[in-house]
Amino acid sequence: MIIRDVRPGSIAEDAGLKAGDVVLEINGFRMFDALDYRFYGGDDFVTFLVRRGAETLLFEIEKEPGEDPGLVFDEVKLGKCGNDCVFCFVDQNPPGLREPLYFRDGDYRFSFMYGNFVTLTNVGPKALERIIRLRMSPMYVSVHATDVPTRMKLMGLRKDDRLLDKLRKLHDGGIDMHTQVVLCPGWNDGAVLEKTVDDLWRLRERVISLAVVPVGITQHRRGLPRLEPVTPAYARDLIARVERWQETRFRPVTGTNWMYPSDEFYLLAGRELPPAEFYDGFPQIENGVGLSRQFLDDFMEEEGDFPEALRSPRRLVLATGTLAFPFMKDIVADRLSAIRNLDVVLVPVENTLFGKTVTVSGLLSGECFAEGLRDRAAGDLLLLPPDCVNTDGVFLDDHDPDWLSRLLGVRAMVFTGSWTEALERLESEQN
User: Fold this and answer.
1) Is 262 helix (H, G, I), strand (E, B) or coil?
2) If residue 383 lies in a helix (H) or strand (E), which one and from where to where?
3) pTM to 2 decimal places
4) pLDDT tens by residue, 31-63
5) Same domain, 369 and 281
6) Within this chain, do residues 68 and 95 fall inside the same structural domain, yes or no?
7) Which residues have a Cβ under 8 Å from the Cβ of 212 and sit 6 or more positions away?
């Protein structure tokens, strides 16, 4: 690894390390990437074996435990997934989206660093040892199926990747794991799902949770294997089955529900969302498990701070995906409408980019909002779902809320998590 920079005044600068030096080993271990630096660099005594030109130099640094020596390396480059899953969402993308959306992420390091789910199919013995040695815990593992023939067919594998052996290795090495199954009706449900649950349950000491997520099907599947969508009746049956397992198997042993259907199952089934206690600390909230419940609870907690009335009449337009529309209407829109001088218009936006079968708000593009809100966005403020833009503030199709504002003639704002802030912003808008 090449040192890109040395922070001025740092211990590393005082020791004589320089930008351009190549770190060969840190504390006697080969320097593979910045994760090694992050792990070993936290020790109170750190050695760096460095190549500088034709010389090989050894630097020894004594410091406080946890103190950063002050070296800067290039960001970890993302490893690519080599699977060919029948349900892969990347393969169902239309043209014209942001370039990163066409990249299949399959890097175990990003699983630890950012909570990305990986299949471990490209993880060999050395990588497993490294995960254990660097204590990369927890890991987030996409299991999908443990039945070998099903797994090979579902994920496009040419041979058994011995997933259970890998999970046992991580289990025995003290690595916690959160797992998921993307449920494809007719492929990995029924007896196959039961086997998957049984196999993961045997590793429950380190397999902390299992999420079940419905397969996402877009209108761009030409040439891909046929998949059936999850129907409301299917969702109700799945929830009932998981609830039986929770009651008879999981809670009596672990004290937790352990296995969690994602929010989409409850919304598709027309079921009331479970209470916050159901989610046992929300271990998979970034996977859409309990996110809707947390959103509603945050709203109801903040509701007590709402004003009884706005200073002057205002109209707030709320845009949402079609899946969330019922609970947004019954709870959020109806309760906001109780504020005097506030007119709330809730608009369900259909997905014209991926098709009507994709109903979550996070996959709505700028053009989806433009088309769905045309002639329906008249108001003082348009509030967009919080997950519809990336960290750079742009939609899937590279448009941004300012573009939408200009197009629709109304100020567009992405919800930041505070309804009080949104109401203050609404009142500050000029008529």
Assistant:
1) coil
2) strand 381-384
3) 0.88
4) 888 888 988 888 899 999 999 999 999 999 999
5) no
6) no
7) 180, 181, 183, 238, 242, 259, 260, 261, 262, 265
